[in-house]
């Protein structure tokens, strides 16, 4: 089983911005997706770790719908 790529909110937003410099995806948007249960995330102390692969898949699926 592959290990999921977990990122802090800021790191997840930075990775998306590195691929698409003009993206409209923000840290707040990613946080809301995680809180709403639309992307997988876990709490690590006071920080939220986002499953980057799940986030990218969610964004891709929304594009094709």
Descriptive overview:
- By secondary structure, the protein is α+β, with helices and mostly antiparallel strands.
- It is 51% helix and 18% strand.
- The chain has helices at 9-19, 27-35, 52-64, and strands at residues 6-8, 41-44, 47-51.
- α1 crosses α2 (27-35).
- The radius of gyration is 11 Å and the shape is globular.
Radius of gyration: 11 Å
Strand proportion, as a percent range, falls in 15-25%
SS elements, strand count: 3
Low-confidence stretches: none
**What distance lies between the first and last C-alpha atoms, to the nearest angstrom?**
29 Å
Helix content: 40-55%
State the order of secondary-structure elements, H for helix, E for strand.
EHHEEH
Number of alpha- plus pi-helical segments:
3
Structural class: alpha+beta
In one word, what is the shape?
Answer: globular
Let me know the average pLDDT. 93
Strand arrangement, major sheet: 1-3-2
Largest sheet: 3 strands, antiparallel
